[in-house]
Amino acid sequence: MSRNDIHPMDKLIRADRMPHIWCSGCGLGTNFSCFLSALDQSGLDTDKCVIVSGIGCTGRIPGYTNIDSYHTTHGRAIPFATGLKLANPELTVTVFSGDGDLFAIGGNHFIHAARRNVDINIICVNNFNYGMTGGQYGPTTPLDAITTTSPYGNYEHPFNLVHVAAGSGAVFVARWTSLHVRRLTKSIKEALLKKGFTFIEIISPCPTSYGRRNKLGDGLEEMKYYQKNSVISHGIDPKDTDLDLNGKIVVGKFIDIDKPTFLDKQPDLLSMAEKNKK
Amino acid sequence: MQFVLLWTTGMDYWRKPLDIDRYKIPHGTIHIIKDRCKGCNFCIEFCSNKVLEVSDEFNAKGYHPPQVKDPAGCVACKLCELICPEFAIYVTEDKQETIPKEDPHEN
């Protein structure tokens, strides 16, 4: 590669680590590109932005981002992010991780951070399986889907991540696919600038594990499937957004409310406690 | 469908927009960093003006990077830049003489 090749996003990626490890046809690079564009457009000071992830294919994203980044232990991205936010409230903290990391190993952390309304942004890339470890089924694998650990079809009911996030108390909930690049960028930008616990789910192709075993074709075929089967329904009740193996994908912005965050009442309480001490 | 194709591929309008003289369609130049490409074909498939195609050449990793088929068709929408998972394609907007935009509601 010649030294003159400079992509506009090279300022926000660690260009010396390119090409990244993700497979051809994987949606993660596209999601990452959308996040960087949103960060660029939001006008936030990148020195005051932090990106945190757990383990998995998606967990590699902070390693490729040229801002302060943390690649933490499996499932514990949200506790690390909460700690960062509490220690330095002026940071914009984003957790970028996969569905297995955030909802299986780190499920409890997710619901309690959402309940407390900690001011962090969660971006969850959902590829319906554990891609990095060989395509085992996880908490989002649809019924009857074939994975390495469910060769005759998955019989466990999956999580509807949008419904989980809304039910746990997130103030901003949206879902897009890797194909909806403009809408996804806009949603991430909104989430970055919003106060409170925001959640964005990105449905993303995994051509090597999930797509191959379920005969969904390569990454391009999966993207065409999203183009044909996505239904944009803003503001729909999150309980109506279940995903099936070969069904429609309901996308859109479902929740956008305001409520006090975890840190909002703390200064008042602190001054009250100090007054009582005297 | 034919109307839509005409609208997107050429400057041959099925209905001449009333304010056409006040707007100029932007034009972009596509830059491809060939050795970053992994041949997913997202940019080729989702370019709305079908400006790109698969090339016959190989890059360092053995993939076929895209090549520009129709340089005049690029309107600098930058969708390929956003959708490319590899940061391997980008678009620079060509400078054109600007047409002063008048407010149509101004008397």
Outline of the structure:
With 278 residues, chain A is α/β, with parallel strands linked by helices.
Kindly report the spatial arrangement of strands forming the biggest sheet of chain A. Answer: 2-1-3-4-6-5-8-7
Kindly state the percentage of residues in helix of chain A.
25-40%
Mean pLDDT figure of chain B:
81
Most extensive chain-chain interface: A-B, 32 and 23 residues
Structural class of chain A: alpha/beta
Q: Give the strand content of chain A.
A: 15-25%
Q: From the structure provided, what is the oligomeric state, counting identical versus distinct chains?
A: heterodimer
Count, helices of chain A: 10
* Contiguous uncertain segments of 5+ residues of chain B: 1-7
Query: Biggest sheet of chain B, in brief?
Result: 2 strands, antiparallel
Mean pLDDT of chain A: 91
**Number of DSSP strand runs of chain B:** 4
Alpha carbon gap, first and last residue of chain A: 67 Å
- Spatial extent as radius of gyration of chain B: 17 Å
Strand order of the largest sheet of chain B: 1-4
CATH class of chain A: Alpha Beta
Give me the secondary-structure category of chain B: alpha+beta
What's the topology here?
The complex is a heterodimer of chains A (278) and B (107).
Chain A: H1 28-42, E1 49-53, H2 61-64, E2 68-71, H3 77-87, E3 92-98, H4 99-105, H5 107-116, E4 121-126, H6 161-168, E5 172-177, H7 181-193, E6 198-203, H8 207-213, H9 219-229, E7 230-232, E8 249-256, H10 266-277
Parallel strand pairs in A: 1-2, 1-3, 3-4, 4-6, 5-6, 7-8
Antiparallel strand pairs in A: 5-8
Chain B: H1 2-9, E1 28-32, H2 42-46, E2 52-54, E3 66-68, H3 79-83, E4 89-93
Antiparallel strand pairs in B: 1-4, 2-3
